[in-house]
Design brief:
Distance between the termini: 104 Å
Radius of gyration: 28 Å
Mean pLDDT: 87
CATH topology of the domain at 53-156: Leucine-rich Repeat Variant
Low-confidence stretches: 3-35
Order of helices and strands: HHHHHHHHHHHHHHH
């Protein structure tokens, strides 16, 4: 190599060193991010996908994280951040994943650190409420947010979530009213003050709302005993879905009102719908046994 080329090479090296020093880097050591030892490697491997520019990747990563059933508090925190994502499908997926984690926590509480998950849920509640109350938001996203709140409310923060569910019984969208009915029934006794409002939903225009209201009232048991006359009227409801739900709802009263319960089953055992007829007939056989 000629002296001219060597000199040029030295100048280029010196220039590179100056540039690196200017931006605060060292030629001898470049820091490398170390993985968080508390996050399982399967989770750590997926987390970068939540920051991907492609919304489809962000959404897919949410589902992948949920399926692992690990570090669920971390999953809830990341999903909470994505409740404000610019894409509605990602916001909806984030709300749904939070709800699924809440459901998993109800079924397998021993598999999750309860202190961490409670803190994560508490941090998610207000963003979920804001998402639901945003009337400019897509309907399916608001419904996903409300459902997540209903799932969380079964385990904690009932005082914060109950008013939202009760208010939702008056929503224009029947999917919201249905979710509210189901959520209140799932919370049970602490939501007993909502029984009169749920009874009003028995006259809702939507069959699926009437059906959900019936099922929820059934879960309240003796707290809903005063609604018996209104519930019994549903035997003549034009929707087979509602009549089917009536059978399950009245199960809670089979011991306190055995003869009336048997009479209703007898009527429904001759129903036009085969599913209603079959369920009523099967339960009638058990009652007569």
């Amino acid at each position: 190599m000629s002296g001219r080329k060597k000199l040029l090479g030295l100048r280029m090296t010196s220039l590179l060193v100056v540039v690196l020093q200017f931006v605060g880097l060292s030629c001898r050591s470049v820091p490398v991010a170390q993985p968080d030892p508390e996050i399982p490697p399967e989770i750590a491997r997926l987390l970068p996908g939540l920051y991907d520019e492609n919304p489809n990747v962000r959404e897919k990563t949410l589902w992948d994280l949920n399926r692992l059933h690990q570090s669920q508090d971390q999953v809830v925190r990341e999903a909470t951040r994505l409740l404000t994502d610019e894409f509605d499908t990602t916001r909806g997926a984030a709300a749904t994943v939070i709800g699924l984690v809440a459901l998993y926590n109800l079924d397998y509480p021993e598999a999750i650190d309860q202190a961490n998950i409670e803190h994560a849920f508490n941090a998610a509640i207000l963003p979920l409420i804001e998402l639901f109350k945003n009337k400019n938001e897509r309907s399916f996203v608001r419904s996903d947010a409300l459902n997540a709140l209903a799932m969380i409310g079964q385990g904690q923060s009932k005082d914060t979530i109950l008013p939202v569910l009760i208010e939702s019984l008056a929503e224009d969208d029947d999917s919201m009213r249905k979710t509210a009915c189901t959520g209140l029934g799932s919370i049970g006794a602490p939501a007993a003050t909502a029984v009169p409002l749920l009874t009003e939903r028995l006259r809702d225009d939507s069959p699926r709302v009437r059906s959900a209201a019936l099922e929820s009232l059934g879960k309240f048991g003796k707290d809903a005993s005063a609604t018996w006359p209104e519930m019994v009227k549903m035997v003549d409801d034009p929707s087979a879905e509602v009549r089917f739900s009536l059978i399950g709802a009245l199960l809670e009263f089979r011991d306190s009102r055995p003869e009336e319960y048997k009479k209703i089953l007898t009527v429904l055992s001759e129903d036009d719908d085969p599913y209603v007829r079959e369920l009523a007939t099967d339960l009638l056989a058990i009652v007569d046994d």
